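Here's a chain:
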Amino acid sequence: MKREDANLVERCLRGDEKAFEQLLRKYRNPVYSICLRMVRNHADAEDLAQDVFIRTFNVLDRYNPSYPFSSWLYRITSNLCIDFIRKRKSGVVSLDQPLSGEDGEMPRQLPSDVAEPDREMENREMMKMLDQAVGALPEHYRIIVILRHQEQLSYEEISDNLGIPLGTVKARIHRARNMIKEYFKSRGLFTASDSPDGDRI
């Protein structure tokens, strides 16, 4: 994977447009997904994802092929998202902000495989509340949770992607879980002995 991406980068630097299209096609969805989870708005996420690729390809000659291209790209993505959030309302995110889509605004909901309507509705509400809890996290905690639980990156990969020590990653994951737990408890969803689903958050 690392060698494949490095070859594509080399071809991009030689002006190969097909290589550019391959990298864009390969990473467009993951980058957009991270942006959307960070800024919680489709239009802003699309603009940010576009900015990520513009920034990436403008500095492509600085990429070190001894490291995974994805790590370098995700670091650019994370930095741009965090900068955007800081500039927009000083990083304050409305917990009730709906997502914007082609059909108007709607709350985020994730599908459930549970057959019972009541249980399905309960699960959807819980996932909506979890999404709001993650959205309420400070941006440095939020990006780590997204990389860990949406992108399924290891602690070591997150450390490489964000350029922070492994111990900091672990500490922030632990702190983020506590903040999410407190968010749920403040809404009467957990007792003192309860916690979100462990490593799943």
Remarks:
- The radius of gyration is 18 Å.
- The first helix runs from residue 2 to 13.
- Residues 91-115 have pLDDT under 50 and may be disordered.
- DSSP finds eight helices and two strands in the chain.
